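Entry:
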Amino acid sequence: MLGRTDSRRRMLLLLITFVVIAASLVARLAYWQVTQHDRLATEAFAQTTKVSMTPSRRGDIFDRSGTVVLATTVDRERLAAMPSELTPQRRQEVAAELVRILRLTGDDADLLTSRMLSKKQYVVLAHGLDRTTADLVRSAAQAKDVEAVMLEPEPVRVYPHEGGGPDSTLAAQLLGFVNRDGVGQYGVEQYYNTDLAGRPRVVHAQRDVAGRPIPDTAVVEDPGTPGAYLRLTIDAGLQLALEQEVLAAWAAGKAQSVTALVQDPYTGEVLAETTYPSYDGNAYQQIAADDPNRFIDPIVSSAYEPGSVFKMLTAIAGLETHTVTTQTKIKDTGILKLPGHTHIDDADHKARGWMTFEDGVAYSRNVVAAKVALALGKSTRQSSAILHSVWSKMGFGSKTGIDLAGEAVGIVRDPTITQWQPIDLANGAFGQGVGVTPIQLATAFAAMVNGGTLVQPHVVKAVGDSELNPGARGQVLDASLSITLTNMMRRVVTEVPTYRDRTLIKGYDVGGKTGTAQIWDPTARGGKGDWKHNLFNYSFVGYIGRQTGIPDLVVAVKINEGTPTIARVGQLEMPVMSFELFRRIATDAITRPGLLPEHRPPVTDLASAGR
């Protein structure tokens, strides 16, 4: 007979074990329900809550009048589908019907079909459907020709005005565009994206196990704010005329590109600016695939060697240091030999002999400019520092602060960091070995003619109802020197027959400075670099005024990589020269109704007010 296997000790041990386990479970349950209650409730709420963000309507962009819409937002629809709800055969049928309705071909048709044939729960098939096309899709869905598709609201940014050239919209590079995510890219759209976009409306709503919103559970976390509208400084009529002039010069000269801008020298307002080739802001996706470089605005983003327009900077240095006057006689030797077996020469390699400094600038003599630069100080080091300081205070080597995305600094070597040799100083005197942007040039020349104030260039006049007043960056030249520089620019176009015949505008005061620069190709000669053959950058920066001595506008022109039709020593002729293009643009601008104030005070009065 077997003995009994139970015992009081064993029963007690089991009881204790059960009690410990139960106590642990109760403690753990209390921990989750009491200590972790808030965290768990928050996580549960998050898992069952759907957050929806509805973008606010993006603000419109107007020209300076506030009546011409340059950019606006229209309501379109996005076509989406739920392929996972259909059989493979039905997906194929729906895809074919949608391709027919949307009239798609080639890659577009293949892309929609591949998305529809996937097993995904949600895919976007097409963007930006207009009302007519969207209604065709709705009709097909009602007739059961297509299934598992939906139409969702989608705002689309549009640029309603055609530009001055083919396949372009007005002021495309200045405006930029808005991508499918509603984010501004390039130009004004990017720089002012926060203002234009506003804040989205944010709503929380509980959802059931199928992911559907539960009625009466929506909570508005942020009602959002609509995007602000912008009023630009741009005059739409002048902008169109400028684009047409630039296109004509580009076509005639077979240049890589042509750039121009018109600026008010007293306020810094950019009244028009463009580059051709441009692009169609409504078709940015195609441009992105074919040639995204068109998005870049060379006026603010591309630096180049300006050539002889920089002789006006050398004039400032010489006149401020009193090492020369406009009447100082300087011998033009045609070629100037420098230490280190280097030399610089005039474009025609001819010596003109003794001439006044102002005539040396008017006839654009490199040797004259180089001699003035070399004599600014007691040594090359001191002269370099003086010339560089003039460049710096006139805004070169730093951003102007213009309200456009992607502004470049330029390329200006500091002689205190990398010592200049005599050849560097001589080349810098006539704008070689330095890289600047057209907006830097225009703004510097504005200071030369407006009484000496370095203005703040800008393209936006108002954000919503708030007028912008960026003011000026400071007085950089004496008013009397400004008058002297203006007279020197006037002498350029009245003294030299070539300029006089093709630059002067009857009834108006005109002045400026030309520049022709060789273009360095660092890839030539197996990476050793060389000058491009028979390709040059042609520049002209000048002013036009209704009264003598009171400039109203500054116009800057650049013909990039132009091929001369006549190429002889000292003569490089284009079908449309930079100074001829200046005359056309200046005439368009000065005669634009309502663009300018009725009267300008004398430059000396303006300079005093600025100080």
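The radius of gyration is 34 Å.
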